[in-house]
Amino acid sequence: MRWFATFGVFLSHVNILLPLPHTRGLFSLGESGVSLFFILSGFVLAWNWTAADTAKAFYGRRFARVWPLLFVAVAIPTLFAATSEGGPAVSHLLLISFSAVVLIQAWVPGWILLGASPVTWSLSCEAFFYGVFPGAMRRLHDAKARSLVLLVCLSVAVLWAVRISLWFAYPPTRHVTSLDGYGPAVFLIYSPISRIPQFLIGMAVAIAVRRGWRAVSVRTAFLALLVPLVTLWLLRGQTFRSAVLFDGVDTAVTPFFALLIAALARRDLEGGRSFLRARSMVRLGQWSYAFYLFQFTVLLPVAVAANPGKDVADFFTDPVAPSTDYIGYALLALAITLAVSAFFYRFLEHPLERRIRHRLSPSPARASGNGDAPAQRPPVSGNTARQRRFDA
């Protein structure tokens, strides 16, 4: 599922940098891929949690999983931007890049969407999630079903309350020519505080599935997800859908993503057939973290090559017109990003993660590099032999 999340983000950036005819309303839905990441993160961590897990082991695994590749993904575009002619002030750029590396970028409104690698804001949110996870999990793992349902409903309500309040405070407009004056809105959309409800929803759903909750079928969950997606596509001409800052797609699809994750997990546990277990899908999922971190770094120079004289800010404040001429550029960016992702996963991300995990905890389960140890889950009727461990 990670591959679909990161590919959606890629399409949303194609929508801005290399827009194609008749795809704006569709590709813009891809920005919800980040929300899918956050829900998946909460789900996977809660699924793999055990009461015996120590904070040191947990944070060590999170560091091994996230930080080495993040450092490289920030360093490379920072180096290019700092040495480019007419680039931003080096001291300011280095400061923002440093905030990304130490995982605090999303706490500073003026830096969230700036820097050499804008997508790194989400890693600051992940770091905050990791910080609150052990304490939250110890409180939630024995919570009653009613409390879990209340948590999900409250989280969805908070997401909508924030979004609607922003629509009143900052009436949607066709284009945002500058982020000046939008600082509070940017913070309430991209900060860890505003995104933690999605993480908590993922945790609550994982706990319910661990207890044997049978969600709807995968087909039903998928059809349910199509309801908000199709509705938002039909509303693509509305002003609140015209700029990422105002788009309500993340809020609208969050509960439906959670339902789909639960349905897929239950099918996996019961041994149902799934193309997501195909070798190619597993491989794309393994590359997805690198793909997410490098896709904007690749897309931007390709887009500049297609639009000489454009700066990164120009694509947002002075959108280029959709053109079929960009199809080849978009495919080229996709191919390069896939190649870069495969390279970094094979030679940097995976080897370093395994090495760091082994040093922190040399037991076979931790040193394997394939994810966190499985939680002690209740048996699943019908096919207990097919209980699976999800890679964190």
Q: Describe the biggest sheet?
A: none
Q: Termini, distance in Å?
A: 12 Å
> From the helix content, strand content and strand pairing, which structural class follows?
mainly alpha
Shape: globular
Strand content: under 5%
Q: How much helicity do the residues have?
A: 55-70%
Please give the oligomerization state of what you see. single chain
Uncertain residue ranges? 364-390
What is the alpha-carbon Rg in Å?
Answer: 21 Å
Order of SSEs: HHHHHHHHHHHHHHH
Output the number of helix runs: 15
Count of discrete structural domains? 1
Mean pLDDT over the residues? 89
Structure description:
The structure is a single chain. The protein is mainly alpha-helical and 392 residues long. It is 66% helix and 0% strand. It has helices at residues 2-17, 24-27, 33-48, 55-83, 90-101, 121-140, 145-169, 183-190, 192-210, 218-234, 249-269, 279-306, 312-317, 326-360, 364-367. Helix 1 (2-17) packs antiparallel against helix 3 and helix 4 (55-83) runs antiparallel to helix 5 (90-101). The chain starts with a helix and ends in a 25-residue tail after the last helix. It is an enzyme of class 2 (transferase). InterPro entries: Acyl_transf_3_dom (IPR002656), Acyltransferase_3 (IPR050879). Residues 360-392 are annotated as: Disordered. It comes from Streptomyces vulcanius.
